[in-house]
Amino acid sequence: MFRSTNELNGYKVLATDGDCGTVQDFLFDDVSHIMRYLVVNTGGWLTDRQVLISPVAIDQPDLDSYELPTVLSKANIEAAPAVETEQPVSRQYETALASFYNWPVYWGSSLTPVMNRPTASVELEERVAARDGDPHLRSVNEVTGYKIQCMEDTIGHVEDMIVDTESWSLRYLVIDTRNWLPGKKVIIAFDWLTHFTWEDHKAHLDLTRSQVENAPTYDPRLPVNRAYETQLYDFYGRPTYW
Fold first, then answer.
1. What domain range includes position 116?
2. Mean pLDDT of residues grouped by 10 in the chain (242 residues)?
3. What whole-number distance in Å separates Cα of residue 234 and Cα of residue 159?
4. Which spans in 102-139 are helix H?
5. 60-94 burial, b if ≥16 CB within 10 A, otherwise e?
6. CB 216 within 8 A of CB 186
7. What is the model's pTM?
8. What CATH code is carried by the domain that includes residue 227?
9. Backbone φ/ψ region at 113: left (φ over 0), alpha (ψ -120 to 50), beta
10. Which residues touch 63 (CB under 8 Å, ≥6 apart)?
């Protein structure tokens, strides 16, 4: 099931025994393109506190009531290690959070599924990441608005991201080209990004400006289904993921 992160932002998050806050942001791995955490604002329930919840604890979103059910109780969430979301999320904190909830860790592997088991490289990676935060963990809110750098020039900005809520893989990046092509939005597969540059707020593609200009128009009111995906991959001449 594909969902827009803009749409999911603001969804009510439900513990097993009641409302526990709203989705405020998402943290994703910029190498594997997997959503690692939902940032939940607990509002008046836990004053001025934000919590991170892994997708392994989330059920499918309820599109009618704009709710995200979890398998956690409010007591679980309240007792979890606190996080300062203004600071980089350290591997030390992630380890403590995974240990508290008994979640499997994901680092130290090829990172295809939402979570994976650790490998022998974890100890070294923990020592590095604990100092400055996980260098590959990025905020969706931060990346939204980044300029799109094609092979020749910038052509627009990141408007939204589309996530598969079955695997919590980031599938597509929505590009608004209105500062170049008035009113047109297009999407590209996350796998076609070459890299982000954080210092100048850019997402880099190995596509030409002409390719993006002539790409199938994206209408956010319509679902991204297999027919649209096939049209998109055929246009770009890229192998499909399915």
1. 2-138
2. 94 94 93 93 80 94 95 92 78 91 76 41 39 74 94 91 95 85 84 92 92 89 92 94 92
3. 23
4. 122-132
5. ebeeeeeebbbebebebbeebeebebeeebbbbbb
6. yes
7. 0.85
8. 2.30.30.240
9. beta
10. none
Residue 131 exposed, middle or buried by CB count within 10 Å (0-12, 13-18, 19+): exposed
Let me know the angle formed at the C-alpha of 67 by 25 and 186, rounded to the nearest 5 degrees: 55
Q: For 101-105, which contacts have Cβ atoms below 8 Å and span 24 or more sequence positions?
A: 101/54, 101/57, 101/72, 101/76, 103/54, 103/56, 103/57, 104/56
Q: What is the pLDDT of residue 54?
A: 95
* Residues 64, 9 within the same domain: yes
Q: Which of 99, 123, 138 is the last residue of a domain?
A: 138
Asked whether residue 38 is assigned to any structural domain, the reply reads yes
The count of domains in the chain is 2
d(C-alpha 104, C-alpha 238), whole Å:
33
Cα distance between residue 55 and residue 167, in whole Å: 9
Bridge partners of 71, per DSSP, are none
Among 25, 105, 114, 42, smallest CA distance to 76 is for 42
- Count of CB atoms within 10 A of residue 212's CB? 21
Task: Clarify whether residues 131 and 14 are in a common domain.
Answer: yes
